[in-house]
Specification:
Elements (H helix, E strand, L loop, with lengths): L2 E5 L3 H13 L5 E6 L3 E3 L4 H4 L6 H4 E3 H8 L2 E11 L10 E6 L9 E4 L2 E4 L4 E2 L19 H19 L4 E7 L7 H17 L6 E6 L14 E4 L2 E4 H11 L2 E4 L2 E7 L2 E6 L4 E5 L2 E5 L2 E2 L4 E2 L8 H4 L37 E3 L30 H19 L16 E6 L9 E6 L20 E5 H18 L11
Parallel strand pairs: 1-2, 1-8, 2-5, 5-20, 8-21, 10-11, 10-18, 11-14
Antiparallel strand pairs: 3-4, 5-6, 6-7, 9-19, 12-13, 15-16, 16-17, 22-23, 23-24
Helix pairs in contact: 1-9
This protein binds flavin-adenine dinucleotide.
């Protein structure tokens, strides 16, 4: 009998746990450790942040779902990994802090035979002075933040209805952020909603980003097949913004967000300010900061994690120049090189390097998007890790499944206005996510499988995906048939 423990009930961890339970015999146990009682379909937080959805439409309680399917649920934060156990027993375990807990109480032990770290990102608002909901800008990364963003948006609209002009700044709040795609989706939804609420004429909307060119999305941009032509994504995105009257600032590192004004530095060395009435700026990410100890209690965190707290897996982490990076550097199995029964899935694994070309300002500030960590690969990786663990429980000595982001495509449908008749969405596919210039010397990607379109059909697909993915996450009948 084996005990598999999954840390995190987000897109990656929940997918891993669901497939582990489906594929493992009943005698093996599957345990999920996660702090929130609810599942949150994060992509739809965009719609929460403009007031089109409420908490109940993007979340559901995990406990009844796990109970129905025989998955043990421990509502807690994982804090420490003990992959060799301790002096009392060599059995590996995770130390967890229960939620709600007793302040100062000892951590509890959750033993495991196999462990999946799918703890996602820590939102590093602290990296920029004044950034975030506790400072002077909004966010849509969690449902609570998206709800307060929506209330602030309503207030801005009310002011516009009273005749005031409002300045909206949307984008990323640090030079090393990822998730530009999510901020992009928010700005085009915000613009659409201002039109729907008939106050667009009173709004100035500005996009601020660390991307060298628009449409980089942390993937070094892409070349999209459109109507028989190959179009660079910066043109595609610029035309989308131009049509909507959105001004943009690229190559920017936000240094400080003060009430009503943010200060930023750009790659050419300029230091500027941008005033705002409403700012939605995503934070940079790190890992959640799990510590790790060997059997004697010595700190081995550096062996398991990079300094950014993301977990080392089977990637090539050798420091190399941008030109020397290769698609083969990317991980395949997500197994820890230190402990074969330890895996990281989704955002929790450490990418070997960025995909976008790194640039630094004259002051030495790195201004370059980190690699995208989107939902589809996170789920695919969770599923592959589950398959490998099942294989190892059944006797394989090595992981039996692979999910390299350099061999995986991704589809992304970014809503650009939620209305069943006048709404629209940008639908993009890329293959592969990590460019491979050895296989595709022209663009690094297969242009026949990398395309972008904008239209009402995309909006219907986005709505359908929202319902399908929540149905799947609820593990309702037939859920495994819905793709990741
Ligand atoms: C606003 C927004 C919109 C997005 N839109 C899209 C989109 O349209 N399409 C797309 O493909 N991707 C989108 N993404 C990206 C997508 O949400 C992520 O790729 C995905 O959520 C990553 O999955 P994950 O499981 O690695 O992390 P998460 O989904 O963040 O899950 C992490 C889990 O770990 C838990 N956790 C945290 N700390 C601990 C701890 N110490 N111990 C145990 N558990 C812990 C968390 O509570 C959570 O349950 C969007 C992201 C954002 C922020």
């Amino acid at each position: 009998m084996s005990r598999v423990v999954v840390l995190g009930a987000g897109i990656s961890g929940h997918t891993a746990a669901a497939f582990l339970r489906r594929w493992l015999p009943a005698r093996d146990t599957v345990t999920v450790v996660s702090p929130s009682p609810d599942y949150n379909w994060i992509p739809s937080n965009i719609w929460v942040g403009v007031g089109l959805m409420g908490r109940e439409q993007v979340t559901f309680p995990l406990a009844p779902v796990y109970e129905r399917h025989g998955i043990e649920f421990v509502q807690a934060y994982a804090r420490e990994l003990h992959p060799e156990g301790d002096l009392a027993s060599p059995r590996p375990y995770v130390s967890v802090e229960p939620v709600p807990g007793n302040p100062g109480a000892a951590l509890e032990k959750v033993p495991y035979d196999f462990l999946v770290n799918a703890t996602g990102p820590r939102l590093r608002f602290d990296r920029t002075d004044g950034l975030g909901p506790e400072g002077n800008s909004h966010s849509v990364c969690t449902v609570d933040d998206a709800l307060s963003t929506s209330a602030a948006f309503d207030e801005a609209v009310a002011r516009m209805r009273r005749g005031e002009r409002q300045r909206f700044v949307v984008g990323v709040g640090h030079g090393t952020c990822t998730c530009e795609g999510a901020a992009f989706e928010y700005i085009v939804n915000l613009e659409f909603e201002l039109r729907a609420r008939k106050v667009r004429d009173k709004a100035d909307i500005v996009w601020i980003t660390n991307e060298y060119e628009l449409g980089d999305f942390g993937m070094g941009g892409m070349h999209l097949r459109r109507s028989g032509y190959v179009v660079p994504s910066h043109l595609f995105t610029a035309s989308l913004f131009a049509e909507r009257g959105i001004r943009w600032i690229t190559r920017a590192h936000v240094e400080k967000v003060a009430p009503g004004v943010l200060a930023y530095e750009t790659l050419d060395g300029a230091e500027r300010e941008e005033p705002f009435d409403f700012a939605m700026l995503l934070p940079p990410f790190s890992g959640v900061g799990l510590k790790s100890y060997d059997r004697e209690g010595a700190d081995i965190t550096e062996r398991l994690f990079l300094p950014n707290d993301f977990m080392r897996v089977d990637a090539d982490y050798t420091a190399k120049g941008y030109e020397d990076w290769s698609a083969d550097d990317w991980p395949r199995t997500y197994q820890s090189p230190a402990y074969p029964n330890l895996f990281a899935a989704g955002i929790a694994f450490a990418p070997p390097h960025g995909i976008s070309r790194p640039h630094t300002s004259p002051k030495g500030t790195l201004i370059a998007p980190a690699p995208p960590r989107t939902g589809m690969p996170s789920a695919e990786i969770g599923k592959a890790v589950a398959r490998s663990i099942v294989g190892m429980v059944k006797g394989s000595s090595v992981p039996t499944a692979e999910a390299s982001m350099a061999e995986m495509g991704a589809a992304c449908v970014a809503s650009a206005g939620a209305n069943p008749f006048t709404g629209t969405a940008v639908s993009m596919t890329v293959y592969p996510i990590v460019p491979d210039f050895a296989r595709f010397p022209d663009y690094g990607r297969d242009v026949d499988k990398t395309f972008g379109e904008i239209g009402l059909a995309g909006h219907w697909i986005k709505i359908l995906l929202h319902h399908l993915f929540l149905y799947k996450a609820r593990m309702r009948p037939g859920w495994p048939l819905i793709p990741e």
